[in-house]
Description:
Layout: H1 20-25, H2 46-55, H3 70-81, H4 86-90, E1 96-99, E2 114-128, E3 135-144, E4 147-156, H5 163-172, E5 178-188, E6 191-203, E7 217-220, H6 229-243, H7 252-257, H8 263-271, H9 276-307, H10 319-327, H11 334-347, E8 354-359, H12 365-378, E9 382-386, H13 390-407, E10 412-414, H14 420-432, E11 437-440, H15 443-446, E12 454-459, H16 467-474, E13 481-486, H17 492-498, E14 503-507, E15 518-522, H18 527-539, E16 543-547, H19 562-573, E17 579-582, H20 588-599, E18 605-608, E19 621-626, H21 634-641, E20 652-656, H22 662-673, H23 677-688, H24 690-693, H25 713-729, H26 737-750
Parallel strand pairs: 8-13, 8-14, 9-11, 9-12, 10-11, 12-13, 15-20, 16-18, 16-19, 17-18, 19-20
Antiparallel strand pairs: 1-7, 2-3, 2-5, 3-4, 5-6
Helix pairs in contact: 8-9, 9-25, 9-26, 10-12, 11-12, 22-23
The structure holds adenosine-5'-diphosphate (ADP) and magnesium ion.
Amino acid sequence: MGGRGDWGTGRQGGQKEISPSSALSSPSPHPPLSPSPYFPLPNTSPIVAEVSRLLAPKIDQKLQDLPEIGVRKAITLGERLGLYTVRDLLYYFPRDHIDYARQVSIRELQGGETVTIVAKVKSCNCYVSPRNKKLMILDIQLQDNTGKIKVSRFFAGTRFTSRGWQETLKRRYAEGSIIAACGLVKGSKYGLTLDNPELEVLAQPGDPIESLNIGRIVPIYTLSEGVAANVVRQAVIAALPSAAHMKDPLPSGLRQKYDLMELKDAIANIHFPKDSDILKVARRRLVFDEFFYLQLSLLQRQHQARAIQTSAILAPKGELIEQFHKILPFKLTGAQTRVVNDILNDLQKPAPMNRLVQGDVGSGKTVVAVIAIIAAIQSGYQAALMAPTEVLSEQHYRKLVSWFNLLHLPVELLTGSTKAAKRRQIHAQLATGELPLLVGTHALIQDPVIFHRLGLVVIDEQHRFGVQQRARLQQKGEQPHVLTMTATPIPRTLALTIHGDLDVSQIDELPPGRQKIQTTMLTSKERTQAYDLIRREIVQGRQVYVVLPLVEESEKLDLRSAVEEHQKLQESIFPEFSVGLLHGRMSSADKDEAISKFRDRQTQILVSTTVVEVGVDIPNATVMLIENAERFGLSQLHQLRGRVGRGAAQSYCLLMSNSRSPDAEARLKVLEQSQDGFFISEMDMRFRGPGEVLGTRQSGVPDFTLASLVEDEEVLLLARQAAEKVIEIDATLERWYLMKEELKYRYERLMGGSILT
Ligand code: ADP
Ligand code: MG
């Protein structure tokens, strides 16, 4: 146990209220930070401070009760932006700031700098883009004493293309108004301009200039129709005094250790910072909080799960496992052995295992799972192996049959296409316990399947299943051990965020003798080269996948459908070979047949949609040709590529793309240069964002307000560490009453509930 005194953690529950003056005088890792301009000054007398504390609105006060806001504006803020309480407002962080400190005149503009100019509107034009009906363009001519400049803003989405919005913009930026524009200076064909700048109206024609805003950093909030920037800003200003009296749920020792600004300062400075350095420090603290409370809830869940002591105790050693090692045609890699040990170690404990095995395509996860399964069986328990597609279940089943026959163990396959009689037989054998292992698809959870003694659940390609589906399989037993596997490595930050409550093992080594897959980007012009390579490989007895993004031209995208492609390849390009077809809309019997024919080498080329993405293991295939490669995500391409290079022969991946966008090219280059799934997924996340990396919508990536899994890795790791320490000291959080309350508040929000109801 780490010393509990580290953080000077007094019981917060009975903690007496700290008066603002003493709070401010307590030593802080940061110099007495620039109370932001709207923040009560620190050097007021204790009496004034006390009065201001009493007058400050309470954190859970409704906005309509604040005289500066009033009922009408409060209703608007609630309806349009979901802001109901003082806390809501304080946590409504600006999406950006206008930095008046960097104000320059138009003549001084220089490319590459982020600056603010203050100038008069000479003309304002607003129109729907002639090329994109969903894009509203606002063009403004600005002039100051030194020159003129045109700036444009773009509003994408149909709600911005209405006449009403057009009129609003024209009125807001009327000729003669004084506005501030802040953004990155860049060159265009009309000379220098500001890139999609933040705009702020300082004065309407005739008004005196409102100097209030100038000379500091001003927050820019996400607005909605009918809510003007100043309404939110004034409301925040009205709410800010109560931030000064917020008690920090994080103990001061913890804050010191991780160099975190105090909460009230962070809240004040995220809205109205004095300069950009303080803004950074404030942001860091609030990012920390977003990560910290999430990790706390994940680790708390893990802690609770570990307290269950009723799972099957599965012995790591025994005759069956020994026999299995003997019949295996290869030796486990070092990484496989390590992961097997992790698993066997978990299985002999009475707390349920909840372990995720991550391993790149072809790293050999299946055999690791099989060893766990055999451990369950030799201890007298049953196991279930669930995979997301029939193709994959079928493949696992075949492999298991070949091994289990040698061990004289029965195994059955249950999918949507299993016949009724067979189904009944399987159900009966499961219920008596005669059948030790069932492999299958979702049918495993959909059917009224009852196990006699389910001790272990294995879920392959777990990211393809929803949380509910995984839970339903677990409920088929009494606290069975759970092993999940994924061949889609995800960046560490993302893994911590969505799997923070699991134990994770990595198989970070490929079986020996694998060759690097030669990966090349090609355009249509080089198509004949691709076909030559394919021909050469087939003549040498190899096989080829051709993958297309869509089955039919359902969207008006210039994609060639698998059906057409199949016909073209069979009839015009490779009449001498046999070309198979596999796509998502085929019946499962037809899919099976297409895969079987390819596996048995009756077809040499398999034209397919992404159905082949997951798990298909046909080592004789050496070429993967991907059409319209730019349409896929990097991790998905990496998965597809993993269908080849599974045998000893040199394999090839051809990425066909006519896209000239630099972004597409840069993405595909990553694949040309790397074969490391973790690196690729990291890049994928950078290019497309965390939600997309997971591919499926089950994702469950929380919506962080400020935090970014790409930019804030360092803070996430610290927050994780801090949360681990907290749970280690006291998982109930009783010791930190405020932290517990805050977690509860955030957790309820996370779950979509609201503390208001
Ligand atoms: P994945 O991790 O992608 O699920 P598989 O479990 O399908 O990978 O294994 C890929 C291939 O490598 C299979 O044909 C499997 O039999 C083989 N394999 C697994 N482990 C080893 C090993 N240690 N040595 C040699 N071949 C192995
Ligand atoms: Mg697999």
